[in-house]
Amino acid sequence: MKKLIFALLGTTFLTVACTSSPNSTDSTPAVAREAVSSVQDVQEQSQSSPTPEVLDWDGRWSGVIPCASCPGIEVDLTLNNDGTFRMREEYQDRGGSHFVTEGTMTWDEATRVLTLKSEDRKQKLLFEGEGEAIYLDAEGNPLPIYRLNKQAEYRAPGQQLILPLQGIRVEDNKVLFTGLLNFKEAQEGGFKSVRGDTIIDCDTRHVTFRDATYYPEVDAVGERIASITHMVQGGFRLSGSSADSVLLQVAETFCPNR
């Protein structure tokens, strides 16, 4: 059954990837190029601006922070360019137990601190470097092990792939990363989301997975459907247009000599 689910996942990618885009003149769509763009120079602004004037501050930030009564808390923070945020926190090993916080944010350019405010909470994050944010305690001191990383987001029709830019590795002409893949519609087997390790062979454009977990709702929400803790045999080969395949977008962005 587990191998069947992966076979179905591979079939889904093949079906989408083989759909050509007749109007495409650039094999790498804008969303893929923007995902790896560098931070531009910060323009002079007031210290209490609602949002930082940085190219890629908005979007999704994720990480696992310490937890006193569980292995860790998975944090998924979305910063919106209208000055609002949404934070989802899930306790590991508690059967999907999670809570969501929404509110507004204020940016202090002098300290590079973003303050998140909701009805019952206030949390400060220090933007230490490109793609990294660190929690601050009540006195404003950094908590180095409480860290979030900027996530790259790739989109194609019916697909969304979220993965940490700093977690992408290229070894032996292979692209390796741990990502979260969402589908707009439920796939055969009942899942809309899968989280796991992905390996893309840049020479053959072949994709394999390992340590994958499937969920019934997007963003890894709901009771887990199935888990596979070993390298899945077979996989599938990427083909078609990158406009129709999030994994092909990653391959064309990070593979050497692409």
Strand segment count: 15
Strand order of the largest sheet: 1-2-3-4-5-6-7-8
CATH architecture of the largest domain: Beta Barrel
| Number of discrete domains | 2
Reported for the largest beta sheet, the result is: 8 strands, antiparallel, barrel
Please state the overall shape, judged from the principal axes of the Cα atoms. globular
Instruction: Report Rg.
Output: 19 Å
The level 1 CATH classification of the largest domain is: Mainly Beta
Distance N to C terminus? 36 Å
Helix content: 10-25%
The run of helices and strands is HHEEEEEEEEEEEEEEEH
Please state the average pLDDT score: 78
CATH topology grouping of the largest domain: Lipocalin
Strand content: 35-45%
Spans of at least 5 consecutive residues with low confidence? 1-55
Query: Structural class of the secondary structure composition?
Result: mainly beta
Number of helices in the DSSP assignment? 3
Can you give a write-up of this model?
- The protein has 258 residues and is mainly β.
- 12% of the residues lie in helices and 42% in strands.
- The chain has helices at residues 2-17, 30-35, 246-254; strands at residues 59-65, 73-79, 84-91, 98-108, 113-117, 122-129, 132-136, 142-156, 159-164, 169-171, 174-183, 193-201, 206-215, 226-228, 236-237.
- Strand 4 and strand 5 (113-117) form a beta hairpin.
- The longest helix is centred in the N-terminal third of the chain and has 16 residues, at 2-17.
- Mean pLDDT is 78; it is low at 1-55.
